[in-house]
């Protein structure tokens, strides 16, 4: 049997995992609650600095990974995230995520504050649409959750 395992920061990876569980009928677990009892796992995790959070730890546990879903807000980074986290041939899906600075805690909140200052300085020195878009995401938040993107993943896993 396949299990769905996730690591979530703002709740979006959890939303995707629970919706995928409904579509497939597979059990769903937060990574810290997963005992590795399934034959294989579909992993969903949020992206920070190009790394899918929790994936390395699940790999180190010896779990057989059937597919990986990376939840993030910058879709243009999907290929880099795949290259950094998944071996060639492993099914990979980029799922549009959400970000809300108000939901960040501790170190992540501090990092976000520093990042906003750096982005503001960059945009001020050389304004461009991409920089302004990223600044808006960090200042105002965004929710890009997509049932359509999840359906593509579910269809692929059910075939």
Short description:
The protein folds into two domains: 114 residues, Rossmann fold, CATH 3.40.50; 40 residues.
Topology diagram in text:
Layout lengths: L1 E6 L4 H13 L3 E3 L9 E9 L2 E2 L2 H6 L4 E8 L5 H8 L6 E5 L1 E2 L6 H20 L3 H12 L1 E2 L3 H12 L1
Parallel strand pairs: 1-2, 1-3, 3-5, 5-6
Antiparallel strand pairs: 3-4, 7-8
Helix pairs in contact: 1-6, 4-5
Describe this structure as you would to a colleague.
With 159 residues, the protein is α/β, with parallel strands linked by helices. It has two domains: 114 residues, Flavodoxin domain (Rossmann fold, 3-Layer(aba) Sandwich), CATH 3.40.50; 40 residues. The chain has six helices and eight strands. Helix 3 links the parallel strand 5 and strand 6. Helix 4 packs antiparallel against helix 5. The relative contact order is 0.17. The mean pLDDT is 90.
Which terms summarize this structure?
159 residues; alpha/beta; Rossmann fold; 2 domains; six-stranded mixed β-sheet; two-stranded antiparallel ribbon; 6 helices; elongated
Which range does the strand content fall in?
Answer: 15-25%
The rough form would be described as: elongated
Instruction: Quickly count the helices.
Output: 6
Which residues sit in consecutive blocks of at least 5 with pLDDT less than 50? none
CATH second-level architecture of the largest domain: 3-Layer(aba) Sandwich
Largest sheet: 6 strands, mixed
CATH class of the largest domain: Alpha Beta
Share of helical residues: 40-55%
Mean of all residue-level pLDDT scores: 90
CATH superfamily of the largest domain: Flavodoxin domain
- Helix vs. strand class: alpha/beta
Number of domain units: 2
């Amino acid at each position: 049997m396949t299990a769905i395992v996730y690591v979530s920061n703002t709740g979006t990876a959890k939303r995707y995992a629970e919706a995928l569980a409904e579509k497939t009928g597979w059990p769903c677990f937060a990574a810290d609650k997963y005992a590795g009892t399934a034959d294989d796992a579909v992993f969903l995790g949020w992206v920070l600095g190009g790394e899918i959070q929790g994936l390395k730890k699940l790999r180190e546990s010896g779990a057989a990974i059937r597919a990986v879903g990376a939840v993030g807000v910058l879709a243009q980074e999907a290929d880099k995230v795949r290259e950094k986290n998944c071996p060639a041939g492993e099914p990979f899906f980029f799922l549009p995520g959400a970000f809300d600075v108000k939901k960040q805690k501790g170190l992540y909140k501090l990092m976000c504050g520093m990042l906003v200052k750096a982005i503001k300085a960059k945009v001020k020195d050389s304004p461009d649409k991409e920089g302004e878009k990223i600044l808006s995401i960090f200042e105002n938040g965004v929710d890009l959750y997509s049932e359509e993107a999840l359906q593509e993943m579910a269809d692929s896993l059910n075939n």
